[in-house]
Amino acid sequence: MWGPFALETNDPSLKAALIGEERAGLRFALLVRAWALGAIAVWLLVSVPMPRVLYWLGLAALFLVSGVVPYLLRRRRSWRLWFALFAAVDAAVLVTAMLQPNPLEPSGWPIQMGFRFHNVLYLFVLLAGAALSFSPILVIWTGVSAATAWSVGALIIADRPETILNFPPPSGDPERDSLRALENYLEPTYMSLQATQNEVVLLMVTTAITAAAVWRARRLLLRQVQSERARANLSRYVSPDLVDKLAQGESPLATSDQRNVAVLFVDIIGFTGLAEESTPERIIVMLRGFHRRMAEAVFACGGTVDKYAGDSVMATFGALGEGRDDACRALRCACAMLDAAEGWNAKREARGAAPVRLGIGVHYGPVVVGNVGEQRHLQFTVIGDTVNVASRVERLTRDHGAPVLASADVIEAARREANGADTLLAPFKEAGRVTVRGRRGEIGLWRLDPGQG
Question: Helix or strand or coil: residue 144?
Fold first, then answer.
């Protein structure tokens, strides 16, 4: 409908957002108009004596009403037509006020003098006010209306019998011709149609530039809304810190890297039994609640959710860049997960549902960080022995009857990070050494005793 100024989207919600911005812009334009007219009224009262000032104050009031009425009709389906109509009325009234002598000011000046004082500049102010509407089509309509009103006014005055439009024909004497032309120019009833044409052309050029600027602003707004929507949608599937990393460049995670990372696994102990006693719908609701609470704990501790797998969640700390406290944040996250489960269980027990018990395993060591998969479906993840050990440690929580088991490696890393003074480690007690499947040698284990420390 708007040609080059049409909305660049078929998304109803984005269209609604742009229309909302238009209406907000019209409200802002009305506020600016009211402020400007108030300032002009004060200046007129100071600079123009009575009773002449009453005429200009009446015009200011008329312009205020011309802005208020269409704003009150902005919720109607034909609100754009109302604004277009009153924009044309504004242009017609403004041109009439600039060219028609003040009836309360008996100056006796010819009407042609209205083209000697650069009154056309007021039309540019009207155009600037239209730009606040955030509607390029309204800007164009306002510019066309202003140019048309100014042209019609000029033609009406030019058609008056006393109006002088042309210089005398040349006589062959350059000095005499110049003097006669100057005398004609100084005649109060003289007006130049060429000068008026130049004013109209400049007004239309400014209109086009202003409309293009408003259109570009709309496109930038649309891109920003689309970008934020894509970011929000991506955050539903990817950790917020990974979204931030992806937003920093085209392929910030394209290369693989090896670094020390804290890996955490958490799952629901006895999930199979819970699933057998409940309906599929209730199981999905429970898993969503579990995933949400665990993810919130991970994000609160500055971690990354690597993947969801049924009733299990894998999180990493330091995968996007080694930090000074990756191990401490992983252990702190494990404690936060237990707190979240405790609050969740209180709600479940209140409605007669079985409590949920967690098993959490944490390990620290070298991993390979990067994208896996094929080009159409990539997944950022960490792989290596550290991941396997963390998973095995989590499975050992059943044998040790502890909600959290941490390897000696992550405890030692946390001690280095906290300089041995972090009270975070106080609740952890040694739980011996074990051999984990798929790995040579033993590893030390530490168990969390929430009642101590």
Answer: helix
CATH 3.30.70.1230 placement within the chain:
240-448
Q: Which residue carries 């409590």 as its tokens?
A: 355
pTM of the model: 0.55
| Rg of the chain over all Cα atoms, to the nearest angstrom | 38
Q: Report pLDDT digits (tens) over 20-49.
A: 777 777 778 788 888 888 888 898 888 888
d(C-alpha 45, C-alpha 51), whole Å:
10
Please report which helix (H) or strand (E) contains residue 442, including its range. Answer: strand 442-448
- CATH for 240-448, options being 3.30.70.1230, 3.40.50.1820, 3.90.25.10, 3.30.70.20: 3.30.70.1230
Tokens of 429: 């007690």
- Print the SS3 string covering 57-98: HHHHHHHHHHHHHHHHCCCCCCHHHHHHHHHHHHHHHHHHHH
Residue 410: both structure tokens together: 């992550």
Mean of all residue pLDDT scores within the chain: 80
392 vs 388: CA distance, rounded Å: 6
Contact between residue 382 and residue 368 where contact means Cβ atoms under 8 Å apart:
yes
Alpha-helical segments (H) within 236-325: 240-247, 271-276, 280-300
Tokens 């040790």: give the residue. Answer: 400
Q: Which string of DSSP letters, residue by residue, matches 311-350?
A: TEEEEEESTTS--SSHHHHHHHHHHHHHHHHHHHHHHHHH
Give the DSSP H or E segment for 404: strand 404-407
Strands 428-435 and 357-374, by their bridges, are: unpaired
- Residue 252's pLDDT is what? 46
- What is the four-CA torsion angle of 206, 212, 215, 217, rounded to 10 degrees? -90
Q: Cα 14 to chain center, whole Å?
A: 12
Higher pLDDT, 8 or 292: 292
Average pLDDT value for residue range 374-393: 78
Beta bridge partners of 433: 444
Q: How far apart are CA 165 and CA 196, in angstroms?
A: 12
The enclosing H or E element of 37 equals: helix 12-47
Strands 304-309 and 428-435, by their bridges, are: unpaired
Pairing between β-strand 357-374 and β-strand 312-317 as defined by DSSP bridges: unpaired
Instruction: Identify residue 180 by its one-letter amino acid code.
Output: R
pLDDT in tens, 131-149: 877 778 888 998 999 899 8
Distance CA 21, CA 19 (A): 5
